[in-house]
Amino acid sequence: MNLGMGEILVLLVLALLLFGAKRLPEIGRSAGSAIREFKKGLESGEPEEKEKEGRDNKREG
What we know:
By secondary structure, the chain is an all-alpha fold. It has one domain. It has helices at 5-19, 24-60. The chain is elongated and about 55 Å long.
């Protein structure tokens, strides 16, 4: 899904109309922190998942 400059501009105008100019920075910060927390969760879950897969493979073999 590639967005061109026109589509991005339309989305920004819609966000401005829906949320207002004062709330957009707050929403952006919230979205950014949510994405960071999600990525941290994925990174911290990866070693546990690999360890679990290793235990499952040992049981099967």
